Structure formats: C-alpha cells, structure tokens
Amino acid sequence: MPLPRVSLSSFLSLSKSALNGAIKSGEKVTFVVGNESADLDSICSAVLLAYLRTYSPRNRTRALYIPLSYLPRADLALRPELGPVLERARLRVGDLLSLDDLREGLKAEHTKWIVVDHNALKGDLGKVYGERVRGCIDHHEEENKVPKEEVCEAEGEMRIVEKSGSCASLVIGWGRGDWSEMRRGEEDGDTVSWDRELAYLALGPILIDTNNLQSKDKTQKSDIEAVQFLESLIEKAPKIGETPWDRDQYFSSISTAKEDIGQMSLRDILRKDYKQWNEGGMNLGISSVVQGLNFLLSQVGSKERFLEILGGWGRERRLDVCAVMTTSHSNGVFRRELLVWGLGEKGVQCLKRFKVEGEEKLGLKVWGNGVLDLNVDGEGKGEREMRHCWEQYRVENSRKQVAPLLRQSMALI
C-alpha cells in the first residue's frame, strides 16, 4: 500500500521532519534536487516529482522522497517569481527545503539522489553525493553522468533526458498515470483541492519556460499535453471564493514578478540565475538576466562600475570565461544580448574559438558600437583579457544552446 496522501504543505513539513530525524539517526534518505541555478523550473520540478514519487502506487517501499532547492535559504528571496506560484499552491517560501536543511552529518552512502532539470550533479553537492545519483528527469544536453537506464530502473527510478520546453512537463509526463491512479476513489473535497494546488505548482514553470505556450522554438508536445492535463484538474476543483482559472492572468503575474529585479544589487542579479561548468580544467560561468544590458548599466550608474562588479564576480568564482545572457522585450519584440569575457590566456583562446563558430550560429552583432568590448593581448608580457558583447538575433538559442558551444570551445584548448 502506498503512503496516504496529504496536502503539499503537509508533505513539505513531513519532509523537513524526516530529514532532521535522518541526520540525527543516520537513517537512509532519498532526495530530489534541481540544478544550481535554482530557477522556477528546478524548484517546482523537484517538489512535484518528490510528491508524485512519494505517493505513487509504485512506491512499494513507502519511502519519503525529499525535495531540495539547490541554494541557501536566504537566496530564495532572489526568486520573486516564486511568490505567485507558491500563493496559488498554498505554500510559503519558508515551507521549501534548502541547502540550510542539509547540514553536515549525512553520510553519502546513506543517501540516494534523483536529479531534475539537470543530468549531472555539480557543485558542492556533486563533490559529496555525485556517485549516489540513481535517476533523473531533464531537458538539457545529455552529459552521461547519471547511471544507465537499466541501473536506475533496477532501483525503481527513472532516467529521462528529452527535449521539452520545461522540465516540469516531463515530470508530468512521467507521473501522469500514477497521479490518475492516486486520484481514483479519492475525489473528496480535500484531495481535489490538493490536486489543484499541485497543478498550479506545475503550471507556473511550464508557462514561463514556453512563454505561455507561445514560443514556437521552445514549446513541445510534452508541454502542451501537460498543460491540458493540469488545467483539467484545476477546472474540476471547487472554486468557492476564488476567481475562475485564467491562464493568461497567471502567466502575466509570474512574468511581472520575475522581471522585478530593480531592488536587487548587480551582484545579486548575476547570481540569481547562474550556472557554472568545469571543462578541461577551465571554469565557465553564465548568468541569465531578465532585463537588458542598458538596464544593468543604469542600475550601477556607469559602464566602468558595471565592468568592475562583473569582473569581481568572475574572479570570485575563479572563472576562465564569464558570460552574461540577457532577455528583454522592446515594443513587443523579444530580444537577447550576450556578453562573454575571457579572463586569462586560456579564456581568451576559448572566446576566440567561440566567436568563429558562434557569430553565425547565434546571429551575433556588435552591441553598442563595441563600448563594452576589450582586447588586451599581452604577447607574453602578462595577463591577457578579451571581452565581446553582442546583440543576439537568433533568439531561439538560450543558455541550453550557448553553454554547450562555449564548453566545446574550452574542450579544444
């Protein structure tokens, strides 16, 4: 018999209690964790999969799957887009589990990890628990770090790496049958409301990542089918005291919150949606920002101050290549910009290689008459740096496409 279902908020409370107990007693724990950028898709997908996996009829061991957000608790404040989603799901930011909840004392061999929205556990968690990954659901480029499908399935887990606008859509695709089975014979007032809360949690990242299903480049069949299924759950649920379901309004509320970064420092903006990779002994870091470069320059007052802070961020993270990707809307037109900064000789070599291939693939044109560009070639006399900033006209290429291009350039050095 599977575990008896509870609401999302009760599930997260149980997860915290179970983790605290395991840390004290040394019991075995199974985690579901998103990627290091800890964006809306990562956070919601981890909670969604952990909930569905815990209460799935397939969970014969009655194990509790604990969802973990890959960031310190204080950094949840850098995710304003969580607000509208959590409110609809009847959750608070404080309900989420973060790295602060994973204190020292939990031995790697006492854990099992399922990764969502990535397929290679990196960073501090990867160093300690990377060998304990036994499943994944992801929509990024395959990195071949998660064990083969037969290994994952032998432990009762999944291994899914497929193209999709949102990872949450793949989670729904995997768990839809289980969810339907869970609901069979349970359609009382409480469980119908719980389904609705879970549906809101899943819809948030799907709508954001596919631009409300309007992005031709990102939206896949998996996204459309997931939204149809989730909306059917919302429309079946009681609406007493609540406004009728309006997809456009929900999308707009999340988008508005996500773009509200005016009160953040530039350093916080750079680390809000940040990913880092190591390739061939070199470090690459890419910050995704939901406002354009002119906004960032105005935030700090000058080009010089902007470059000072960005360079300091690159040095703090010990990067060989530091990149910033921006998205914005101007007169109803979606725009992208890309800044890449090669720090040191190897970083410069990488940028040169990337420039040759990337200019055509990404549709790169010099930004602002080159005011942010830099080319310092020491010719053996010391430090070398190179920096290029472009408008990116092939806007269908997000970090999912740009990061592999940069990593390929690094691998050739």
Task: Give short descriptive properties of this protein.
exopolyphosphatase activity; 2 domains; 413 residues; five-stranded parallel beta sheet; metal ion binding; manganese; globular; DHHA2 domain-containing protein; alpha/beta; DDH_dom; Diaminopimelate Epimerase, Chain A, domain 1
Summarize the entry for a quick read:
With 413 residues, the protein is an alpha/beta fold.
How would you explain this protein's 3D organization?
The chain is of the alpha/beta class. The radius of gyration is 22 Å and the shape is globular. 44% of the residues lie in helices and 18% in strands. Helix 2 (40-55) runs parallel beside helix 6 and helix 6 (167-183) crosses helix 8. The model is unreliable at 378-382 (pLDDT under 50). The chain has helices spanning 8-25, 40-55, 82-88, 123-129, 149-154, 167-183, 189-209, 221-236, 247-258, 266-272, 293-300, 303-316, 345-362, 399-411; strands at residues 29-33, 65-68, 111-116, 133-138, 159-161, 274-279, 282-289, 321-330, 333-343, 364-366, 374-376, 385-392.
